[in-house]
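Reviewers of the previous submission asked for a worked example of the structure-prediction workflow described in the proposal, so we include one complete record here. The input consisted solely of the amino acid sequence. No template or homolog information was supplied to the procedure at any stage.
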Amino acid sequence: MAAWDDLTGQADAIAIFRAAAARPGIDSPESAGASAESASMTHAWLITGPPGSGRSNLAFAFATALLSPGTPEGDEATHRQVNARTHPDLTVLSTEGVIIKMGTVKEVVARSQYSPSMSRYRVIVVEDADRMVERTSNVLLKALEEPPERTVWILCAPSEADLLPTIRSRVRSVRLRVPSVDDVAALLVKRNGVDAETAERAARQAQSHIGMAQRLATNADARDRRDETLRAALGIRGVSQAVTTAARLLAIAGDDAKAFTEEQDAAERAGVLRSLGVEPGGNIPPGLRGQLKALEDDQKRRATRGLRDGIDRILVDLASLYRDVMMVQLGRESTVINRELLPELRTASTSCTAAQSVATLDAIAISRQRIESNVAPALALEAMLVTAIRR
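From that input alone, the workflow returned the following structure tokens.
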């Protein structure tokens, strides 16, 4: 199985990374400023692209190619180790919280100084590099300024603008495009074995976001929550309904986040108890409770991020809804995303003007910015939904 088999819609980016992985060694640090089309191999890369475009998948495929002995296609054993994040020469820097902590970055920077133990390179993948505050980014900057000879950094972020200019000047950027609905649907059929109709609907409703499309294709509850969200928004007729709908959307986001993390939390807790020698259902010795408390704190931070991400997904879905209303108003029904709601969209299009639909889309964008700036989600949603009132 080649390292690139699970990727879709990114042929140009794959060609760049495949050519770089085939190079015998790393070029000088100055090569980071070369054009993305260059086949040279540099010590630091930045993969950018919209959410769901496959940034992390491409980063780990590149890591597999770099860590595999003798072939840029990636051998099966290395592929399994990278997927399990157990390869001795692979380090992954990520967070399930809102930001990446400085202490975590310092640990990874220290580890980057080690020579690889069994591969050509030591590879460090930084997922969500945009989640570092400036002072944390400066710690990473120092590692990029004086890179070890055989260490390769692979950073992932939505856009170059999300990182400090000093970091951008020391990495080679490769931007991903949004894969087509057909590409994502084909991937779902191949990877998850879903039928073509379900795959197409999930890819379309997820707007080509690979991770969300997979969830919609394989999880009926997720599909039901999305449908309830859109129908609730279409039914707003007054301020009181806007307020109650905002509360309901928060509850849906909470249910979605809980469903996403509950199974993972239970597995983590069971794993920790097992490693500590505590039988299921047994009493936890006082001396071990601190370790469980640390795990619970991490899970709470993940739940906070999960809720925020869930709210953002709802806002993205609402943006697709009101974009569809505007398309119907402009006579462009063939471009509608939520085709299953076409009768309701036609009714909604008669109760407002295209200008009002644009105003609601602007309100959704502002709401996303406010929540990102730590405005109370309930207030941000209420203010946005008031603009969605249709008589």
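The mean pLDDT is 86. We consider this example representative of the routine output the project will generate in years two and three.
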